[in-house]
Amino acid sequence: MQRNFALVLLLVTALSLGMSDSRGATAKPDMTDGEYVCPPCGCGNDDHVYDKPGYCSVCGMQLILKGTAAMPVAPQNPPPDRKKAAILIFDGVQIIDYAGPYEVFGQAGLDVFTVAVSPAIITTAMGMKVTPHYTLDDAPEANVLLIPGGGVTATQQDARVIKWIQERSKQAEYVLSVCNGVYILAKTGLLDGLTATTFYDLIDGLPAVAPKVKVVRDQRYVDNGKFITTAGISSGVDGSLYVVSKLFGKARAQMVALNMEYDWKADSNYARASFADRHIRRVFGRNLRLPVPQGAQYKVLSTEGATRNWEVKWQVEGDASPADLLKLIGDSLVANQWVEQRGSNRAANRSAWKFSDEDGSEWSGAAEAQPAGNRTVSVRLRVVRTGAKSAQPRGNSVAAEKIVIRDAWIREMPPSTRLTAAHMVIENLSGRETALIAARADIAGTVELHRAEMDNGMMRMRKLDRIRLPVGSTELTGELHIMLIDLKAPVKEGDRVALTLEFENSISKTVMVPIRKRLAE
């Protein structure tokens, strides 16, 4: 009995010691004393071990004890001076316009906060309730100022907001607008003389609000130095990652994107406003409302294409013949300055059209309506860009002189190889960002713009629709290059190839490029 009592007493004592240890004793099972790490935030410094509490030297987040949950430890030193990002919010703000950039800047280690006219709760475009951190009067200075879009009309007419943006822009390193937030920014006059973009369905109206701004539709975000504008909605994530790359380097932006599981391409050519369906939407609206006779109904079956072509398919059910539908479609096209092309080859259920776009480029269209069953008709409308405008605008000859091609060469390949690459440096001295959009050479069946990138451990070539050319030099000497495919004859050292490069605004330059001997490998 005494032995059993002693064993019980020993067990109780051991449990008591264990309980006291959990409340503050120094023993820490399965932990490493004195080793601190950054919480897993995506800054790329998560594996670095510090020997005392403090703050991450990369992102500024408070360190945690290695092996513990991500709970902050008591600081021994004041936090470093982290860069700040201020996000303007207002009633009707689009959620992703500010929440996407908030996530990007936060993961990159910036101190992010929202600012509104008053401390009252904000109601977003879809009913989310948000309490701002600061008002216009008490918000701290920030390195980045972000202006999202949404229901912007009241905000762009608020003199207090306009003045606040004007003043805070003087102190900020970068000012970024998302979607139609550019309408607010343009109202300040800070974009006058610069280039900008916005949401695809509002881009045609931007010149009316900002007549001194050059509006572009083929860029996901536009960099003017301090002032950066993005296209619609999700492009704010791309623009914010780009700002992070300018603040901290490309690697930081890439690591943030990877941690967010976001497929970020710094040179993404996805610009919704440049798609060829804009010509169809101008006729039938954003929802592609097909005119049909009374008693008939339609639905959109598909809408797909690219920048130079597009096709929409509808299905119509009810009292509607193919001829009736073609007549109604034709009336709508004529009202939008399309011209019908009549001829001997015109089919009964098909019509051909031509029109010019806002830049004077020529397009062809084809409408078709065919029976598809009992009281059902299939309708298809296609548009294809057939050629650029016939004459260059005034001033293009001057602009062309400000695009300089130097150090161009084409690699010699074995006679059995039917492709090669052209390399060069392009200097943009125009003072504004532009882009290389195409290239051609008589010696090749196809010439494409390419980027080399790693994909699952393998180097692959990705075709590009455009290569951004910011002010300064852009090297097409490795990762970026021009591929000459399906060579019509071998190229060898000493030869020269005429290579024509096409830039935005119909500028083109032809250079004689020498062939260099293939280096030994």
Could you provide a short overview of the structure?
By secondary structure, the protein is of the alpha+beta class.
Name its key features.
32% strand; 4 domains; 11 helices; Rossmann fold; disordered N terminus; alpha+beta; globular; 521 residues; TATA-Binding Protein; ten-stranded mixed sheet; seven-stranded mixed sheet
What this model shows, in words?
With 521 residues, the chain is an alpha+beta fold. It has four domains: 34-81, no CATH class; 84-274, 3-Layer(aba) Sandwich (Rossmann fold), CATH 3.40.50; 278-387, TATA-Binding Protein, CATH 3.30.310; 396-516, Sandwich (Immunoglobulin-like). The chain has eleven helices and 29 strands. The strands form six sheets. Strands 20, 21, 22, 23, 24, 25, 26, 27, 28 and 29 form a ten-stranded mixed β-sheet that branches. Strand 3 (84-88), helix 2 (95-107) and strand 4 form a beta-alpha-beta unit. Helix 2 packs parallel to helix 7 and helix 7 (235-248) packs across helix 8. The N and C termini lie far apart (87 Å).
